[in-house]
Amino acid sequence: MRRRRLLPFLSLALLAALLAMSCATSPPRNTVDSCAIFNEKGGWYSDALDSQKKWGVPIHVQLAIIYQESRFVHDAKPPRKKLLWVIPWTRLSSAYGYGQIKDGTWDWYRKSTGNRWADRDDFEDVVDFIGWYVDVSHRKLGISKSDAYNQYLAYHEGHGGFKRKTYKKKPWLIKVAKKVASRASVYHTQLKQCESKLDRGWWIF
């Protein structure tokens, strides 16, 4: 009898756990409004703020890069491409997660920071990675940490590619970097209107 009585409660607990996991990994409903993002994903603001304090990279720059790379989809991957004379529908890149970070770059981050258990599908780890990478770009290339345009070019092309100015041969990438800079500016304006509430924890739950 006790087992029968416990079954409904266990089922409800399992359902609640599955719903919580789904909410934790699903992208925000409104990805174009930084205040709405943090209102829905309460823990994300403290994660982004920690990264900002640690690396000096503005929250709006972090968000703009993530938006461009994955639209806040935690397990995003590059689309597959069909190649002749190669395995059909081969994936050409190891990029993965919120920040579309390649295996080699992620390994470099984990070794450099000691954050060996970090995951590319964990928002907290990815904003820390972006803070770290932007900081490295600032030190190596002299790019301002608030310069979303050039920081994105360095993020996409790598430090060596940015030095060689490989982006100049990619007009499409220049357009994308401009979009990233524009979105960062919008996010920045929005955050000015709600940041004081977020700092006081009004919307964090």
TrEMBL record:
Residues 1-22 form the signal peptide. Gene3D superfamilies: 1.10.530.10. CDD domains: Lyz-like (cd00442). Residues 13-194 form the Transglycosylase SLT domain. Keywords: Signal. This is Transglycosylase SLT domain-containing protein. It comes from Thiogranum longum.
